[in-house]
Automatic annotation (TrEMBL):
Source organism (scientific name): Nitrospira defluvii
UniProt catalytic activity: 3'-dephospho-CoA + ATP = ADP + CoA + H(+)
Name of the molecule in the record: Dephospho-CoA kinase
EC number: 2.7.1.24
Keyword Cytoplasm recorded: yes
Biased composition (Polar residues): 1-10
Keywords (A to Z) from UniProt: ATP-binding, Coenzyme A biosynthesis, Cytoplasm, Kinase, Nucleotide-binding, Transferase
Length: 228
């Protein structure tokens, strides 16, 4: 199938996105890690999985929430990095903080030490809540640092969304206004994409058109549903 590669064999199952197949009634909740490089298309793919009926737990969104003004992580960031990383309205100046930490790996580690434990707690809470609501949910963890943070060991399957580097750079320029150097710094702050791809159970090509990508996502969702 275009844009979708799997190590496993295709299962024969009714071609619809979402809905519970009668053969799957005993399936427990499945935890799926979704990762990739910067701007390869993880959020785009996770929105498509949401349309199929999956529960999405988005680490970037949680990382944004835990640093809202006045929250403990926000206070720790101000204490560590100073008020120069704040906007006049006291929200985090993400551009300023990003420019600082992606130039200095030691500072990035300090920021991660503040944010990651709080994101992990929220992930655990949301996972429990998804399991209570639907014990057979397909739960997708959208986590850019899935491998770097060792979360791959806690999920049943890993999907990696790939893109070639020129596409990543062009997207970061268009979406974030990053220069080429800024984009490359952000890309290099992660495990190389080829290492992530080599460790994946499923690969999705994030550079194909959205309709083709959605077709690949629907097929993969059916395959995930079929995992007993
Ligand atoms: C430095 C910050 C404020 C810059 O914010 P900005 O709005 O520019 O980026 P945003 O948070 O939306 O992330 C965009 C992408 O950058 C990449 N990225 C973010 N944090 C990291 C990191 N610590 N290491 C490598 N890549 C990262 C991811 O691919 C992510 O999808 C922000 O990235 C941050 O707080 N990072 C530390 C928290 C973290 O590790 N988040 C990742 C998910 S837990
Ligand atoms: N298949 C596609 N075709 C064209 N553009 C796309 C496609 N998928 C994503 N994009 C665009 O590329 C950019 C990055 O996509 P997206 O936000 O989904 O990536 P991401 O991996 O979640 O990014 P980040 O690592 O920054 O969180 C967005 O501007 C999005 O609109």
């Amino acid at each position: 199938m275009d844009g979708y590669t799997a190590a496993t064999n295709e299962k024969s199952i009714e071609p619809h996105c979402g809905g519970q197949h009668p053969m799957l009634s005993s399936r427990p909740m499945i935890l799926v890690g979704l990762t990739g490089g910067v701007a390869t298309g993880k959020s785009t793919v996770s929105r498509m999985f949401a349309r199929c009926g999956a529960v999405i737990i988005d680490a970037d969104a949680l990382a944004h929430q835990v640093v809202e003004p006045g929250k403990p992580a926000w206070r720790a960031i101000v204490k560590t990095f100073g008020k120069t990383v704040l906007n006049p309205d006291r929200t985090l100046n993400r551009q300023a903080l990003g420019a600082l930490v992606f130039r200095q790996p030691a500072q990035l580690r300090r920021l991660e030490q503040i944010i990651h434990p709080r994101v992990a707690r929220e992930q655990a809470r949301l996972t429990k809540s998804a399991g209570r609501k639907d014990p057979k949910a397909v739960v997708i963890y959208d986590v850019p640092l899935l491998f770097e943070a060792g979360i791959d060991a806690r999920v049943d399957k890993v999907i990696v969304v790939t893109a070639d580097r020129p596409t990543q750079i062009a997207r970061l320029n268009r979406r974030n206004g990053f220069t080429r150097a800024e984009a490359i710094r952000r890309i290099r702050s992660q495990l190389p994409l080829k290492h992530k791809a080599a460790a994946a159970d499923y690969l999705l090509d994030g550079t194909i058109s959205r309709p083709r990508l959605f077709t690949a996502v629907k097929q993969l969702y059916r395959e995930l549903l079929a995992l007993a």
